[in-house]
# Entry
Amino acid sequence: MSILVNKDTKVIVQGFTGKEGTFHAEQCIAYGTQIVGGVTPGKGGQTHLGQPVFNTVKDAVNATGATVSMVFVPPAFVGDAVMEAAEAGIELAVIITEGAPVRDMQMAKSHATKHGMMTIGPNCPGVITAEECKIGIMPGNIFKKGNVGLISKSGTLTYEGANQVCNEGFGITTAVGIGGDPIIGLSYIQLLQMFQDDPETEAIVMIGEIGGDLEIQAAAFIKENVTKPVVAFIAGQTAPPGKTMGHAGAIISGSSGTAQEKMEALEAVGVKVVVSPAEIGKAIKEVLS
Amino acid sequence: MNIHEYQAKQVFAKYGVPTPRGIIAETVDQAVANAEELGGSIWVVKAQIHAGGRGLGGGVKLAKSIDEVRELADEILGMTLVTHQTGPEGKLVNKVYIEEGADIQDELYFSVVLDRAAEMPIIMASTEGGMDIETVAENTPEKIIKIEIDPAIGFQGFHARELIFGLGITDKAEQKKLMKFAASIYKVYMDTDAEMIEINPLVKTGAGDFIALDGKMGFDNSALGRQKFIADMRDITEEDADEMEAAKYGLSYVALDGEIGCMVNGAGLAMGTMDTINYMGGTPANFLDVGGSANAETVAKGFEIILQNPNVKAIFVNIFGGIVRCDRLANGIIEATKITDVNVPVIVRLDGTNAPEAAEILKNANIANLIVGDDLGDGAAKAVAAAKGEK
# Structure
């Protein structure tokens, strides 16, 4: 078992024939992901990487039965692409593109929710179920199969965390990079629930960072709903205040979004919080033995 | 990206949001000419910098004669204004905005920001105008009205009613004016891809008009490509020179006050690296994210920017290669040390695809001040030791 995706998941790529889309689709195919086609408007009918190209997501879904879309379109077109996927019946859109305008993501996410489509990202490394299905840009070889679920706002910290878990002799069920944009798709709470429900996952690594209050919400959720051990790291204990957050933005949640308060909130509900990402592997070893 | 008050007011004016009349000046003579052009008998001389708290810092002053306008403009132009948002070093004032005086009856607070939890814009308003809203939130949170606006439906009548009744506006004509004001500001927010609009104070005049006495706007950088009108308002003198230089090469840089320079790929790992250095007893000199496609040129530029900081005693290069091959990065780093004269110890930790080959390349390069770190913890420990002059 795993969460979200597995070896049977059929995936299409939006922005299939572009440079990034091509490179990473190739890597995903090599990993074993079932890339069953892609969408590039105007190139419908062509074949790319041995797979059919379609003009619209609707055509692609009808012809291939794909349920997941990996989105590589340029930033200005992400909102449009995600809304198209939602209306075409895609169940999960994994948005890799960095730099999509926030306003577009507001509209796209709200539309996706209305159509029952989940999203991951944007600006994220994607999702991987170890040794089965990779949908994203992460180096597949570091994710060995195992019993640890991983959720992270940061791409390279996902790799760092997974690598340490595997170096300690454990492995990963599924790792999800949720992205660090102001508006993101699946977040800690939904994924914690999925990992809690996944019989194969025995422990969870949660990597957060400064800004917003998703980690604080996660802490409250863990208290009530998660019985599996959770290891957490929050990046930015040494980040200067005011550099990444707008003045008025900090006030809404009634808290300032510092690493410190997030760490305290998680610690208070029994999460094993590490002060350096270098300790993630050791902490997993501790909670699993 | 942020813009100045006078620019925000230009944007407001385009959308029919009432503001006092005003003209921007870069010299004292211009300031005087502007006051004469505006006419009247009372003017406000306002320093234009990207920071709040200008009034308390002495950057906003009232003039009751043209001579006083001259005196105040002379005093404020060229001053280094220190406010609670500028840091102790303050900000140089290059421009003053000369504005007509306003007949202030009531001061309100009004802002539109993105509520990350609700994933939609939120209007915040308060009767406690002119005060720092964070103080209001702390002491009297019940005095802040928050209204979520779903962009799919836009600003509706019920939103407007929540606002006027919440603020206790009872006069029919005033209600109408404030509803229009709020609808216009919401439109500005959506149309310009703003991240934040703050009007503090929003003033009710003796005649019952609502005008934006101040205006602060910040924008979503990701949307500037489709907001040429806004992007053209960028004032580079307000931005950090090192950060801008770094951005030209796709690097994200923030200076800190420690001793260990950091060069990392990915923002999260970059912060995690700073945290680790701190945990090991060192102090990070900067945040530097070299992005996903690090190569010899970007790494060389990274070294150059880090070394402009005289406090740097060692540099920790921490890269988790991902799909970028580590052996290529190792060659890039060696190349970079040739392009830029790196005169402090450099600790390099490369992980990911082809990491063992990369370590071999670095060891064989025989560069005296290049030390290989085995993993994040080991690399950070070696960097902390090197900065302290230990081997």
User: Anything to note?
Assistant: The first strand of chain B starts at residue 2 and ends at 3.
